[in-house]
Amino acid sequence: MIVTLKDGSKKEYAEAKSVIDIAYDISEGLARAACAGEVNGEVVDLRTVIDSDCELNILTAKDEKGLAVLRHTASHVLAQAVQTLFPDAKVAIGPSIDTGFYYDFDCPPFSRDDLDAIEKEMKKIIKKGAKIERFTKSREDAIAYFQEKNEPYKVELIEDLPEGSEISFYSQGDWTDLCAGPHLMSVKGVKAFKLLSSSSAYWRGSEKNAMLTRIYGTAYASKDELKEHLEQMEEAKKRDHNKLGREMKIFTTVDVIGQGLPLIMPNGVIIMQELQRWIEDEETKRGYVRTKTPLMAKSDLYKISGHWDHYKDGMFVLGDEETDKEVFALRPMTCPFQYYVYKAEQHSYRDLPLRYGETSTLFRNEDSGEMHGLTRVRQFTISEGHLIVRPDQMVKEFKDCIALAQYCLQVLGVEEDVTYHLSKWDPNNKEKYIGDAEVWNQTEAHIRQMLEELNIPFTEDVGEAAFYGPKVDINAKNVYGKEDTMITIQWDALLAEQFDMYYIDENGEKQRPYIIHRTSMGCYERTLAWLIEKYAGMFPTWLCPEQVRVIPISEKFHDYAAKVEAQLKENGIRCSVDQRSEKMGYKIREARLARVPYMLIVGAKEEEEGKVSVRSRYLGDEGMKDLGEFLTSIKEEIKNKTIRKIEVQEENK
């Protein structure tokens, strides 16, 4: 057989060989660093035997997929350590994730002292250096094995596997786990790890199931890499919008109100209003007309759209279908409402495209385990839009929606932080979707071609489409590496039929339009969280709740400070005067901590000459300027939504 390596070179063997044996044949150093193999694009265990021609890539921890294998092995070491110290703990699942790994246990919560003890036990296990062995069992034997060990979650996992599935196990010393793999050859390969936190998580992510205890950890190939990551995590904590947003009085949450229902405080409202005015103005420039639709509707509407059948679990339903004459639901999206705006009058082909925009408040019944600050909430507001177009207009309008999204990202300064995804249907799970395979394949092909024509790198995600059509998802990661969708643009060739939407063509015949569902900037709450973390609260000046703070040197200059404040406000600048009887250094430090972009210091010389001494977060001391000169520059900065770079770092002393 001939094995083609990543660099194009070839190895020829007269007999079958395992991946690890081929790695040793290439280089002993490579074999020692190897975590897994990639055979014809599929990640496999190092124990996998190759017996035919193939392409092979030996994965190390320097590769994302190889690092995932190392972390998965670390999760097994974690589980072994937990069951050594806490024999009554039942094991659930323990995958690798983008930032490390976790394992879920059915047991009481763990304290930090518990985590430290578990870490110590993990080091003992690793030091013993047990080899990791893979073996399989029949379905019946596998179930019996875990029933005897009193591991109900493993039994459930096996019972849910399709008939005929290979059921594999991995053992390390005297500890064994159900697992599809792959894993390292030995626990010795886990050299640098850290347990980060413990939290609660529902079994299989459903609040209808048991509440488990989850331990999060991370692992790297070297201690230096781990140290660098932990330092990044410390920086991430400082930027975490959940912490920083509360400190800056942007939002808060209250248990008595409910999870996923944040209170946006005055500072946060200012930012969201600025974003909303900007977005609505931009959409108007691009030919959008605005609608205002109800926050709820009868179930009849959602039955027509298909949401009742495909999305009911994610909705807040008001009433009981079995006993109430009418059942309502809070809207999870605006599309069916805007369709009836379209249907309120007859349209000809000349009227299209029609671009409807709405700043929509929506409601989605998210699982409590998924809620996080402003990123995932149960009530939120989005820059929603639906374009009703002729089929021949679809591609141009879809591209224009992408262009609008990219413009928004560029203005906010986050265009380099996103990834693009073609979210497709899952042909193996057709009951989740409406429409036939031909329509789905055609629409996915159109989107793929558009993204290629626009030279936008993208990945394809099976099973992530809406139930009525494929979409482009523009995603970004938070400071902890978790990815969320920020902007969505969906191709819909199906719902017009269900709502009997049509236009009159040039021949006087009724024709079905296509629909584009899109957001221009996405969810305001999620965007606000993103911006808090992106800028560590130091927003571009146009978004700052307080843009200027006037600081008089002493009480003698309060009147002049008030005049400066009045002129600033007359010019639309958000500002305040610090009249406290505190030292200047203290007041300057307080303004910096409040992340105010500009301070105007006023004293005798400034009053005499009608000037202000400018300090900014960008250049530090910018010197004395005419107030009119400062007003001109800051107004231009706000109008152009300029993102000034911080060129001088000043300590908050």
UniProtKB/TrEMBL annotation:
Q: Which domain of life does the protein's organism represent?
A: Bacteria
Which residues span the membrane?
none
Question: What's the cofactor?
Answer: Zn(2+)
The chemistry this enzyme catalyses reads: tRNA(Thr) + L-threonine + ATP = L-threonyl-tRNA(Thr) + AMP + diphosphate + H(+)
Location of the protein in the cell: Cytoplasm
* Transmembrane helix found in the keyword field: no
Keyword ATP-binding on this protein? yes
UniProt keyword annotations, A-Z: Aminoacyl-tRNA synthetase, ATP-binding, Cytoplasm, Ligase, Metal-binding, Nucleotide-binding, Protein biosynthesis, RNA-binding, tRNA-binding, Zinc
Q: Could you state one GO biological process linked to this protein?
A: threonyl-tRNA aminoacylation
Pfam families (alphabetical): HGTP_anticodon, TGS, tRNA-synt_2b, tRNA_SAD
Location of the TGS domain? 1-60
Cellular component annotations (GO), alphabetically ordered: cytoplasm
Xref: InterPro entries: aa-tRNA-synt_IIb (IPR002314), aa-tRNA-synth_II (IPR006195), aa-tRNA-synth_II/BPL/LPL (IPR045864), Anticodon-bd (IPR004154), Anticodon-bd_dom_sf (IPR036621), Beta-grasp_dom_sf (IPR012675), TGS (IPR004095), TGS-like (IPR012676)
Task: Tell me which Gene3D superfamilies the record gives.
Answer: 3.10.20.30, 3.30.54.20, Anticodon-binding domain (3.40.50.800), Bira Bifunctional Protein, Domain 2 (3.30.930.10), Threonyl-trna Synthetase, Chain A, domain 2 (3.30.980.10)
Its Gene Ontology molecular function terms? Answer: ATP binding; catalytic activity, acting on a protein; metal ion binding; threonine-tRNA ligase activity; transferase activity; tRNA binding
What range(s) does the Aminoacyl-transfer RNA synthetases class-II family profile domain occupy? 266-540
Q: Which CDD domains match?
A: TGS_ThrRS, ThrRS_anticodon
What positions does the entry give for Zn(2+) binding? 335, 386, 517
Subunit and partners = Homodimer.
Identify its protein family: Belongs to the class-II aminoacyl-tRNA synthetase family.
NCBIfam families per UniProt? thrS (TIGR00418)
Return the protein name: Threonine--tRNA ligase
Origin organism of this chain? Blautia wexlerae
